[in-house]
Structure formats: C-alpha cells, structure tokens
Amino acid sequence: MSKSPVHLLVIANFAKPGVREQVDRLRPWFAQRVAEVSVASVGEAVGSAADTAELCVVLGGDGTLLWAARALAARGVPLLGVNMGKLGFLADYSVEHMQKHFDDVVGGRIAPTERMMLSVRVGDGGEARFCSPAANDAAICAGEPFRMIDLDVQQGEHCVAEYFGDGLVVSTPAGSTAYNMSAGGPILEPTLDAVAITPIAPHSLSQRPIVVRSDPPIRITASRINEGTALIVDGQVPVPLRAGDVVEIHRHDQPMRIVPHPGHSFFSTLANKLQWGRSPHRSG
C-alpha cells in the first residue's frame, strides 16, 4: 500500500469512554496510509503539529469538533468528525465509515465543504479584552440574579433592534441547529453566508428571530445587564460582561472546512438526527 504524503492530526476527547482505545487502535492503521500522524488531546495546545497538518480527524462528538474548529481556525485545516458522543450532527462519521472513506478523503476524492465561522470581540470602546473565533454561535445569557436584560443591536450604521429579555443568540448557519434552534430560531442551510439573530425569551410579541447577511459587523451593546450576564462562545467559552460592554461579531477570515459524509445530505441528517420534516402520520 502506497502512503499519502499527508500529515494527519488527530484531536481526541480522551474523557469520552472508548476514545483512548480507538486512538491506540487507529494510530498504526493511519500510519500505514499517511506520511505522518500527530495526536493531540482536546483542551490542550495543539502545538506545531497544527502548522503542517493537512487533515484533522476529530474523535469525540460535536463539542470536540467545535473545539478543534476554534483551535485550527486560522489554518483552514479540513476536519473529519468521528462521532463517539450522543448527537453527532457535525461529527457525522462513525469509526467504520471513517475507515471506509479515509483513502478517498486523503486522495482528494471527497472534498471538504466550507462553513462560515464568526470572529467575536468584547470591549468597552477601547482595546478588546477578549477575542475568539466561533464555529456555532455567540450567545449572551442573562445570568444571576436572572432579571431581564437590555441589549442594543446594530449592524453597520443601522439599528437592528433593542432586545429586552433573557439574552440573544447570534448563530452561523452551521450552528443554527444548536442553541439557535432551541431558542426558536430558523434552521439555515450550512453553506449560506448569513447569520441568525435570535432573542432568548423576549418580553415582546414583536421581537422575532431575523436572518441577516454576515457583513458588516454586528455590534451588541450591553445597556442593562445582571452581575452574572455572560457571553458564551460555542456553548464552551464563557466571558463575563459588564454594563456598557460592546460585543462585536463579524465573519471570520477563514471558514470551517468540514469533510462531508458522502452518504449523508444536510436534509437527511436533519431528518435522522432531529426528526425534521417527519410526518406524524408515518411510522418507522
């Protein structure tokens, strides 16, 4: 068997049952097929391996893949997600299917698709005190003592709305099936160049979700918030907010590149994972 010259990076969530055993089993299998194999654990620095990696296999679940997408955001490394968690919406491969299609992936016969990411910045008008990419969403949640909060939203020079409620979710198309959907927001086809702005429990019948283009930047001013109000990136990175803070969100320079499962479409995944579009009159 001839090897591909690809440098493969494996990012694994070793906290999940069975992941360490799979990595130990797969590492020699990968080594027979690619020139170099590096392994990193989720939550740790990926180091210099990320600089030369040409493909990243992510072993864990959707949360692990989101972490990997942020860690590799500046490099544009294609991500192949292997689901060893629960839902597996983004991490769409099983171990068996990954092995079946791996040679086609490294041989370029299965091309990655691009999914827009966000760049999130928090500041008070001066230098930013927090910056991060986001693959799924940036959510502002009211927090303790759980009173409603006021958020003023602008895009470019235009006022979008003043939201009064429990918070706000700004979602990428890829993330529209996560917190955004749970909050009543729309599902977006994942290759769209757009974002969904979805209020969380708004105290108004007129404040509904809206889909806008990904530029110019969205600016959210925390006009009145609680002591526990926080920005949460991808459901994983919390950032405490202060009154007067401005959260600026715009399209990231690099997209997330996902290796699609050749046997699954977006709509079949919606139906199989989330029961979307299923008729209540049809069983099975």
The main pleated sheet reads as: 6 strands, antiparallel
Per CATH, the class of the largest domain reads Mainly Beta
The counted number of beta strands is 18
Shape: globular
CATH architecture of the largest domain: Sandwich
Radius of gyration: 20 Å
Secondary structural class = alpha+beta
What is the helix fraction of residues, given as a range? 10-25%
In words, what does this structure look like?
The model has no long low-confidence stretch (mean pLDDT 93). Helices cover 18% and strands 36% of the residues. It is globular. Helix 3 links the parallel strand 3 and strand 4. It contains 6 helices and 18 strands. It is of the alpha+beta class and 284 residues long. The strands form 4 sheets. The chain has a 6-stranded antiparallel β-sheet. It has 2 domains: 125 residues, Probable inorganic polyphosphate/atp-NAD kinase, domain 1 (Rossmann fold); 134 residues, Probable inorganic polyphosphate/atp-NAD kinase, domain 2 (Tumour Suppressor Smad4, Sandwich).
